[in-house]
Amino acid sequence: MLRWLVSSVTKTIAETPDAVSLWLDVPEWPGHKAGQHVDVRLTAEDGYSAERSYSIASSPRSDGVELSIVRLDDGEVSPYLTGLAVGDQFEIRGPIGGYFVWEKTETRPVLLLGGGSGVVPLMSIFRYHADLNAVTHMRLIYSARTEQDLLYREEQTMLQSDHRDVNITLTRETSSSWSGRRGRIDHNLLSELTSPAPEDLLCFVCGPTPFVESVANALVALGVAPRNVKTERFGPTNGG
User: Fold this and answer.
1) Looking at residues 181-190, what average pLDDT do you find?
2) I want to staple 23 with a disulfide (CB 3.0 to 4.6 A). Which of 11, 27, 53, 141 is the partner?
3) Percent of the chain with pLDDT over 90
4) pLDDT grade for 44, boundaries at 50, 70 and 90
5) 125, 112, 147, 161: which is closest to 37 by C-alpha?
6) Are strands 181-182 and 229-234 parallel, antiparallel or unpaired?
7) What residues does each domain of the chain span?
8) Is the dihedral of CA 169, 172, 178, 182 positive or negative?
9) Which pairing describes strands 19-25 and 110-115: parallel, antiparallel, or unpaired?
10) What proportion of the chain, given as a percentage, has pLDDT over 70?
11) How far apart are CA 50 and CA 115, in angstroms?
12) Domain 5-96 -> CATH class
């Protein structure tokens, strides 16, 4: 059974106005796989505790564990976590999950599809692929509301190579300065970017439940085998 471990914040990064990445030192951390998550527990002085699950953003080869937290103003946990400073501590338990993971021995081409903060575990996979200098092709398709909501934008650009590429589409961007794609990840966009889909294409889809259902169905309609579509979803209160 997994034990609760004390983690210490070593670095904070303001990703967006509402999101912060926390780099953690966890002395007894056993290591994780790309795509796994942890449970976070906060305990008040009166003994009341609240728990939430957060995906791990860091590569398994990173020195430390990174969690990226989007603040929900009416949440119990995220407002506290996004206000932490270097040296602050809290408990985590993990790593958790064995289905939504990408292994270094994998040789199939990979398609990562993230909606909003669903990009977090996909970033762990994308970073790990880069750390390994893997030659299998990996594409990240990332949907966010506005340019201001994008997580890891600069790093994603830096990690692009002959074997890794990133496509971003914004669903609510109204600024005329955005020259990239607009609209949701749907059948038309996936057909444009993946057609013809390789027979052995391995897909990881993460985001809110409606997003995941829609994208997974579109992938299958395009000919991707259902067994090759791995999904992870969260509800509207995830991360609160």
Assistant:
1) 92
2) 11
3) 83
4) confident
5) 125
6) unpaired
7) 5-96, 110-234
8) positive
9) unpaired
10) 98
11) 26
12) mainly beta
Cα–Cα dist 89/159, whole Å: 31
CATH class, range 110-234: alpha beta
Q: What is the pLDDT of residues 74-117, one digit of tens each?
A: 888 999 999 999 999 999 999 999 999 999 999 999 999 999 99
Q: Would you state the torsion angle of the CA atoms of residues 158, 161, 165, 168, taken in this order, to the nearest 10 degrees? A: 30
> Which residue in 211, 142, 146 sits closest to 172, CA to CA?
146
Specify whether the CB–CB gap between 13 and 24 falls below 8 A.
no
Cα 178 to the center of its chain, rounded Å: 23
Give how far the C-alpha of residue 221 lies from the chain's centroid of Cα atoms, to the nearest Å: 24
User: Which residue do the tokens 């749907």 mark?
Assistant: 186
Instruction: Say which residues have a Cβ less than 8 Å from residue 209's Cβ, sequence separation at least 6.
Output: 233, 234, 235
Determine contact, residues 38/93, Cβ cutoff 8 Å: yes
What's the token pair of residue 209? 């439940």
On the question of pLDDT at 30 being above 90, the answer is yes
Where is 13: in which H helix or E strand?
strand 5-16
CB 229 within 8 A of CB 205: yes
Reported as a pLDDT band with limits 50, 70 and 90, residue 180 is confident
Residue 235 is predicted with a pLDDT of: 58
Residue 7, CA distances (Å) to 71, 84, 158, 161 in order: 20, 12, 29, 34
